[in-house]
Amino acid sequence: MLGTADEVQARIRAGEDSFVEFKGLPLGKRSVISPNAEAFAGEMVAFANAEGGAILLGIQDDGTVEGIAESELGTVEQWVVNVATNGCDPPIRPVIRKVLLPGEDGVERAVFVVEVKQSLYVHATTNGRWLVRVGSSKRRLTSQELPRLFQQRGRAYVFDEQPVMTGVARAARPPGALSPGGRAACDTGPTRYDPMHERCRPRCCRPRCLALPEGGPRGVGR
Question: What is the pLDDT of residue 8?
Fold first, then answer.
């Protein structure tokens, strides 16, 4: 997306938008002080759930090239990888590039370009925030947008069991009983049914559901 220093400088001059975020990077003795890990994970999640984008580390919100000290580049890169791996669910694999840009005094400073591609999955932070990039900021996905995004990404979204809002509890089914629609119910704990694969999702402790009725999908539960 941003392969050369000239391209990065052009984007800095243009300012933040749906595809570019600036982040200054105050450093402490051991690690990054700001942004915190949850906030940075939110930026990556938002880009992955939208059309992708780049986070420029070492650039202030006004476009000033602050840079990252050469001695701190390894620490910052490892911090980015850790947040992408442990702060995003599922993990994100960004492309991290180092680019040298002139500061206000004309001295070249290193900045990181952290590129996040549009994902095949729908991501959340490990604190449970589903975010998407809109313009120059991020926002939470609404309850209507979230399942639609799962459908768009080609994956069926199956919610965990939620309290029944009508106050009527769902009747338990005996092992092997059919769920609504003629599908087999699992006999081990709460079931999350995946309509795309005609099988239970990971909350079952067994790898497959019990046998489906005659005429069910071939190779499933057999």
Answer: 93
CATH for 5-140 is 3.30.950.30
How far apart (Å, rounded) are the C-alpha atoms in residues 129 and 127? 6
User: Are 16 and 59 contacting, i.e. CB atoms less than 8 angstroms apart?
Assistant: no
**CB-based contacts of 187: which residues, under 8 Å, 6+ apart?**
175, 176, 206, 210
Whole-number pLDDT of residue 160? 46
**pLDDT one-digit tens code per residue, 179-198:** 444 444 444 444 444 444 44
What DSSP string describes 82-125? HHHHHSEES----EEEEEEEE-TTS-EEEEEEEEEPPPSS--EE
Q: Are 133 and 18 in contact (CB under 8 A)?
A: yes
Query: Do 194 and 182 contact (CB within 8 A), yes or no?
Result: no
Domain boundaries, the chain: 5-140, 176-222
Provide the pLDDT confidence category of residue 22 given band limits of 50, 70 and 90. Answer: very high
Q: Which pLDDT score, from 0 to 100, does residue 51 have?
A: 96
3-class state of residue 186 by DSSP: coil
Give the integer Cα–Cα distance in Å for 109 and 100.
5
Instruction: For residue 27, give both structure tokens.
Output: 């450093």
- Going by their DSSP bridges, the two strands 53-57 and 20-23 should be labelled as parallel
